[in-house]
Specification:
Sufe protein. Chain: A; 3-stranded antiparallel β-sheet; 50% helix; binds zinc ion
């Protein structure tokens, strides 16, 4: 077991036990969107405040497994206060991370690249090895994406 795997496990547990940006925003004006992962029973509700093309605030409630809840906490820290174009790019990059196929590239090299690109979010990269958990990890992200689409329409 590598030190990096220990670090990642610690990050996931930390965000599960002490979720960031937990709670609700008054809706309206905040946009409220719900997500559900029937495979695991995970639920997440995302509250979005968007002003002048910036995601000025985000809050989440929900319950479910440690992967789904830590992923929503990690997501909130990654996107809060960011322009929507950056938020969308981060969503796309994360979903790409979650669909990455096993490659022959050096594992340490790949881990280092993920850490550089994603920071704490890279902690979730290991989920790819467990296909049944990918929907847990992407639940909050798909819910956020749906909320942004609803706001744009
Ligand atoms: Zn789950």
């Amino acid at each position: 077991m590598s030190n990096l795997e220990d670090l990642y496990r610690e990050i996931i547990l930390d965000h599960y036990r002490s979720p960031r940006n937990r709670g609700e925003l008054a809706s309206p004006p905040a946009h409220r969107v719900e997500g559900f992962n029937p495979l695991c029973g995970d639920e997440v509700t995302v509250y979005l405040d968007v002003n002048d093309g910036v995601l000025t605030d985000i809050k989440l409630t929900g319950h479910g497994c440690s992967i789904s809840q830590s992923s929503s906490s990690l997501m909130s820290t990654a996107v809060k206060g960011k322009p929507l174009e950056d938020v969308r790019a981060t969503i796309e990059a994360f979903k790409e991370l979650m669909t990455a196929h096993e490659t022959t590239t050096d594992e340490e090299e790949r881990d280092a690249t993920n850490l550089r690109t994603f920071g704490e979010l890279a902690a979730l990269a290991g989920v790819v090895k467990f296909p049944v958990r990918i929907k847990c990890a992407t639940l909050a992200w798909n819910t956020l994406q749906q909320g942004l689409q609803e706001l744009a329409s």
